[in-house]
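Protocol step 4 of 5: obtain the predicted structure for the target chain.
Materials: sequence only (see below). No template structures provided, no constraints applied. The aim of this step is simply to have a reference model before the mutagenesis design in step 5. Sequence pasted as it appears in the construct record:
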Amino acid sequence: MAFLSPRPTVLSAVLALAALVALAPARPVAAVAPTGVLDSRPLVSNGDPAHRITLVLLGDGYTAAELPAYRAEATSAWRALTAIEPFHTYQRFFDVQRVDLASPASGLRSGSPLGMHFGCEGVDRMLCADDGAVARYAGPAAGSRCLLALGNTTRYGGEGGDGLATLAAGSPEAARILQHEMGHAIGGLGDEYDAAPPDAGPANLAALDADGMRRERVKWWRWLGAPDPSGGPVGAYRSGNGLYRPTRDSVMRTLGGVYNLPSREALIEALYRQVRPIDRSTPDTDAVAVGAPLQVFPVPLVGARQLAVVWTVDGRPAPARAVSGDRLDTSRLGLGPGDLAQVEATVEDTTPWLRDEDFRRVRMTERVDWTVGDRAADRTAHQLP
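Step 4 output (structure tokens):
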């Protein structure tokens, strides 16, 4: 289960409320009567959707007259997500699509297009949607995608998991709720607060203590002892549900926090399971003539650090005179008539927010190569019909 973490200051009250709510069945929701998509347009375009994760935003409970408010809340949601790391640095891994739906009545009630309602699984603040309706209104995707349903309500609530999050978009806490729920939806992170169900599957929860993680080399064992941006070292902090979390606090425990280092690593890995480091390369042929420029286009990051590009020629570092960042000038390789060279560009994400070097090598490193020389170009020409 993935829902909002209670504030520690009101934990006992929340637990009491959850117990009372669990005694009463959730109110049934009537079948949704689709009203149609009024508009669907890009909110943010960072690249080819086939090479990005498309975050699709959809509103529920907004009448046609209220759609301007929904559009403003959709923009605010994207800003909230990109205000927290690692989403700030990796925001260009996403395209954002906004779908405008007009509900027959204002607010979350029977007959809204996405069927959003509170009280799922007996938890008052848990805001659910009809998964099938959300997917249907989102439409087909060119590549990977994540869905975010915005509910027209000022109540406190949300939910997230398995590529879908919900948000009470009018809540004063909406921005902080979103940051928590997207940890569930994109990274598969678990709730770190004491009252969370005891599930040791997520990357940021463990049944073993620090010694056990080191011994078994599991979970966040590589991070143990590292200073964390949440304050204090990464360790194994026992929660009331019997599981261990990496730090004393984080956004997966208390709204308004930050993702701890093991959670950041899990989120970055989730992004790279869907996006490759190289957007494209030119030319797109395997063999090129001397003088043709070569270039790779890594997926850009926000900030001074970018993906590293390393050029080699026949397995050795390329001459410095031929290289300019993501470009290589083949006329400066010193190749004579009849010479052939194998030129390779390796793009790698060198972020210190990841310590799983096997994952970095397999998913966060990509190579492209060309055969350079006049004979290579001749060979390509002879292959043309």
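Step 4 remarks: Residues 1-34, 380-385 have pLDDT under 50 and may be disordered. The longest strand covers residues 37-44.
Proceed to step 5.
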